[in-house]
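Incident review: delayed structure delivery

Summary: a single-chain prediction request sat in the queue longer than the usual turnaround. Root cause was a stuck worker, restarted by the on-call engineer. No data loss occurred. The affected request and its eventual output are reproduced below so the record is complete for anyone auditing the incident later.

Affected input:
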Amino acid sequence: DYYGPDWPRQRRRARDRDDHTCQACGIHEDDVETELSVHHIRPFRMFDSHEVANELNNLITLCRECHAKWEGIPLRPEVV
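Output delivered after worker restart:
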């Protein structure tokens, strides 16, 4: 999916802010040997602007398994 021209930068900023660690289960990228996902807490499609959708307060780093659990749920998962 295309999330606007600022997506790569905002995705990187969210992962850096979250120390490259899943905010739901606590696993680190080094443990899974791949980049973790960045999830829109409130779905991207609900915004009129990619700038607002991609604000850091709407992004959270999640592993693949946790991302699948939280997809479509407009809530912030419990932080470990």
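Verification: The chain has a mean pLDDT of 90.
Action items: add queue-age alerting; document worker restart procedure.
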